[in-house]
């Protein structure tokens, strides 16, 4: 605890120039020490506000099904060849030396492809330095980590640095074969034009026809540099299906009906991002379909809890207002069909993270959910009660909900889940957001309390009388 406080104090009083120099020096030494391992593998960098982890895991599954040896580092897991284990660090992107060590181990295990979840804070702290990216995937961008970066535009600029890094990468050959610089971008996102404005060899555009299409692609389709992956005719049920259309060039189309075992339109976004990347690496559409349809779940990402009580228990990592709204609106479809209730358990992260979003989260939960339980998440050194009150103020403003009748403040996250389960009836949906598959709750002075959201929710439902 003492060293944690010292570290926080030093960070506050040190000028940013010196902090950046420190990070850069560590990154350079780490790359040098491990011999720039990314030069010998195809490196896929995935960045964006939401969907990075799901896209990475889908891509790894597709590539492995097609005889690629894969390494991967994400918010929830690490993978080197046949070995896979949980990420318990609570970091989406690892520190400089650990990052390079992971890549070195992947190279040593003869991995063909390394998939690297690449975060804005990781880029800012030079954790991506020395990594020779070949394919960069842009999933989406919404306001998050705004206070950490000093505004949305700074946040976006940090993401764009990854694509500039790709553009500036020197020519790369593996086994005598040139590795093209490739961008894969979500054309549903209004910022997409910024993320494709780089000098690369190939660009794959992803478009989901879900009524949220902002960019006219007619000017791009005739350009040989571009290929497109479309998702049409969406069927958004517990299991999701859609037509995946691959437009290789203006006159060449391939089409396949994909049936996912995953729920929610955002899983379609992740699926076509992963599909585009796999296709860029030579996997055919039929193999993409077979691989995607074998995926049963992504840990902590819209993960349904099996039970015998007729209640839909769901765990999801959603922790920003836009992703929360997507989760609630998707699950609302189930409750409307069943004439049942949507019950949510949510909180907000401390540690100075996006305080302004707390009210918005509560506002969205209050509007879209029938019962709202506001509780603890990861308070760090912030006052947990203050965080809960900030979120709850949004709930109160959103509707005519009354405290202790259909909206509640409960300090203990476990108690909040138990209370949510106890008021549920068959057909109801209980969704706990913000933690996903994380294995701890971080409180004052960096203390970590063991936590498993999935197991807590499962146990609560099964023990319900």
Structural description of this entry:
The structure is a single chain. With 465 residues, this protein is α/β, with parallel strands linked by helices. The protein folds into two domains: 8-294, UDP-N-acetylmuramoyl-L-alanine:D-glutamate ligase, CATH 3.40.1190.10; 303-463, Mur ligase, C-terminal domain (Protein-Tyrosine Phosphatase, Chain A). Helix content is 40%, strand content 22%. It is built from 16 helices and 21 strands. It has an eleven-stranded mixed β-sheet, sandwiched between helices. Strands 14-15-19-16-17-18 form a six-stranded mixed β-sheet, with helices on both faces. α13 links the parallel β16 (342-346) and β17 (371-374). α3 (52-65) packs across α10 (265-280), α3 (52-65) packs across α11 and α15 runs parallel beside α16 (453-463). It is globular. The two termini are 42 Å apart.
What would you call the shape? Answer: globular
Counting DSSP E segments of at least 2 residues, the number of strands comes to: 21
Which architecture of the largest domain does the CATH hierarchy give at level 2? 3-Layer(aba) Sandwich
Proportion of residues in helical segments: 25-40%
Report the CATH topology name of the largest domain: UDP-N-acetylmuramoyl-L-alanine:D-glutamate ligase
